[in-house]
Amino acid sequence: MNWITNYVRPRINSIFSRREVPENLWTKCGECGTMLFHRELADNLNVCTNCDHHMAITPRARFENLFDGGIFTEVEVPTPITDPLQFRDQKKYPERMKAAQKKTGEKEAMLVATGEMGRTPIVAACQDFSFMGGSMGMYVGNAIIAAAEKAVELKRPLILFSAAGGARMQEGILSLMQMPRTTVAVQMLKEANLPYIVVLTHPTTGGVTASYAMLGDVQISEPNALICFAGPRVIEQTIREKLPEGFQRAEYLLDHGMLDRVTKRTEMRDELITITRMLLGLSPAIKGDLPAPAPAAASEDKPEESLSEALGGAETNAK
């Protein structure tokens, strides 16, 4: 050691050190392994640009693409009892709820909103699988009822995006009671002659599939979505047989008459606009407005005259 090392700190490392890069700039596709830039992925609605694998998307991001200009109004949903059964497993139920709310930034597992889609007024509801697996609890039941009542009140069609692992076990029988409640809500729409369109996303399973998710007038799904009541692993263990390739996936269900359409997320909005207007008996949607006619341009050779100057010139000529 000498006086240089004691009093003059090296700067080479600080000059050539790597800059800190945020970890969330890139996302790896779970299907093909391609690294996708976050802006490019968001612009493509969380669909892999290499293999078309449909990743999870939040309800707000979906609504921003669905509604005209990304403008929508949230529908207030009645808040149920927080912990009716005083349920506890590894954690208390309220603690799990707080963790899910902090993770997602949402109040619960379903978002309901009103707005226009291709200038067609609609009511939409969307489940968030990242919120406790999108499980169907009392709040989700209240949300679907609120969406149906708002649709009947405004005389608008209801479009529902499902994504759930089934009923919420922390609410026990109260969660299972949402199956008949939501079925009654769907019946309200049918009695009012209002379209009810369901878009099934990955995954839609359990009691959700056994109730409101399969009662639509039109059943649409995103590609390769898992749609079932009991999972394929449970079925294989029960019947002790190997299931067919792609069993319980969207394309398999389409081939066997359980679905009407399988549509890519990037094409979903146009598909829903066409179907909704068709069910309502409306004319085809307008893709865009023609620009307003531009005002007549003044002559470049002669500067524009005011009205008083023009009249003054006319009087001079008359004299």
From TrEMBL:
It comes from the Bacteria. InterPro entries: AcCoA_carboxyl_beta, Acetyl_CoA_COase_Trfase_b_su, ClpP/crotonase-like_dom_sf, COA_CT_N, Znf-ACC. GO terms for biological process: fatty acid biosynthetic process; malonyl-CoA biosynthetic process. Zn(2+) binds at C29, C32, C48, C51. The keyword ATP-binding applies. Its main location: cytoplasm. One of its GO terms (molecular function) is ATP binding. Keywords: ATP-binding, Cytoplasm, Fatty acid biosynthesis, Fatty acid metabolism, Ligase, Lipid biosynthesis, Lipid metabolism, Metal-binding, Nucleotide-binding, Transferase, Zinc, Zinc-finger. Its EC number is 2.1.3.15. It catalyses: N(6)-carboxybiotinyl-L-lysyl-[protein] + acetyl-CoA = N(6)-biotinyl-L-lysyl-[protein] + malonyl-CoA. Residues 290-319 are annotated as: Disordered. NCBIfam families: accD. Belongs to the AccD/PCCB family. This is Acetyl-coenzyme A carboxylase carboxyl transferase subunit beta. It comes from Thalassovita autumnalis. The gene is accD.
